[in-house]
């Protein structure tokens, strides 16, 4: 065997041990029979969990909610992150590094801590409602609503959009923008026709990362969505730890993975197909 | 009044004076080069004319209209950038059509104009290609076509040839001149390459540390450089100490030491004659072959002198050969001291 393969062995072991193996076990588990008296029957097989999942409107609702929230979060990240990355790439030397660090430091703080931060802000007598009341308004229900989940997810996911877009922006020739201006384009046209098409590969990676992470996020929906506003990952958690129905939890997890993959692959194909010829990606 | 006029145009970057009180008048249809070493403010001057850099002082007039503070789009000038600045995600055709689309020209007219200009730059067969599928010279032509198609009053070229290899550079140099003559467009080209500036310009503007130090037609610039710097920067020159004689004619000082004058003598203006004849005696130190000519470094009592002799087929002189140096006295040029220190 060549040295190259040998050198990749540690990574392969890690990959197999930490990803392939648990995924395989989850897949196997999702076909096991579950009995409320005795628990998982490891040697009996069934499709009952999948049937239960596909015939229950409750799960459709959870899946639908998860995906529209993730799609909206992704969209908001594009709308906020792309201009932010553009401004960042046009900043002068000291400021650019400072703001880049400012954008990245939240990643060093645990998602749980940041979720708690948001729940303190948005709670029934949190800072936001205190301000509203001080201004004479009626307090709003913010926590345990899609609003809370979305705002916190956008906050957490934004760096994952900004970084790939910023990387693509680095490759842009600033004089191409000047050329467009001198040819009579307005600043908005330059943005739309020159800058944006060239950073599409970055935007595409960003949307894939953000959507994937948002659709499988657990801590934020768990802490800010509460008991009523469930998303798929929190339902999986419930199945495992409250219902103790591990096979059902595994089934939901497998379906989430597959649907997520399907959406991301089709999105990738769609966007890449449009820009493949012109960008040569 | 000239077609494009700069009046005391200046640009400061913090403590750096990038361009200082530059005056320039370019006539309609003229090809003018801005020539100077790197960092002397050529690009800054061009960018102020194009409108990408704010002016610190002075005035830019285009056909009598003050455009000093106009937006780049409203100036409507054709700009070709050093990096070409093509739109990588658009085909050659779309790159060239961009300016016309921005001007809301009807599609039929766009198609015919694009076709015409692509023929002018000899790129018609490559209209559907993307910039990354083109060679450097072809990209250069696309950039030129894109700037020309909007029929701008002035074409601005920033070091258009510096990214090309030597052979292609010479070819494109003539190509640019051909196109400029065909279209008859007023052109301002920035370059640090004196050969490029001399060969294709109607007039050359020499810049040094943000200032214009001489404006002349190429031949005059070469034959009558005003200062020591220009004489050295434009072509090769031997610097000799000299004095005025009783009749007020400049003479080379043979006694050594500093004269009251600095004289310039071009290497190709010196003839190599038999030892013992000529004005000065010398010995060949070294020789270099350039194909069409030989360059000799000759040790003389006046110091080291460079002589260029065309390769007429006769055998070259070997190292250590004793020779005499002869020249016409009226080919000596008196140089002014450099008022600008870069
Ligand atoms: N954006 C800028 N900020 C600060 N200094 C600049 C800037 N652009 C150019 N300069 C300075 O102005 C001077 C002239 O630059 P430039 O016009 O690019 O020279 P050239 O094109 O002749 O090489 C240089 O000293 C350069 O460092
Ligand atoms: Mg320059």
Q: What is the H-and-E element order of chain A?
A: HHEEHHHHHHHHHHH
Helix-strand category of chain B = alpha+beta
Mean pLDDT of chain B: 93
Give me the Rg of chain A, rounded: 23 Å
Share of residues in helices of chain B: 25-40%
Largest sheet of chain B: 6 strands, mixed
Strand content of chain A: under 5%
Structure explained in plain terms:
The complex is a heterodimer of chains A (about 280) and B (about 350). Chain A has about 280 residues and is mainly alpha-helical. Chain A has 13 helices and two strands. Chain A has a two-stranded antiparallel ribbon. In chain B, about 25% of the residues lie in helices and about 35% in strands. Chain B contains nine helices and 19 strands. In chain B, a hairpin with a 5-residue loop joins strand 11 and strand 12. Bound molecules: adenosine-5'-diphosphate (ADP) and magnesium ion. The site of adenosine-5'-diphosphate has 11 residues of chain B, from strand 2 and helix 1.
Comma- or semicolon-separated keywords:
heterodimer; A: mainly alpha; two-stranded antiparallel ribbon; 13 helices; globular; B: 342 residues; alpha+beta; six-stranded mixed beta sheet; 19 strands; binds adenosine-5'-diphosphate; binds magnesium ion
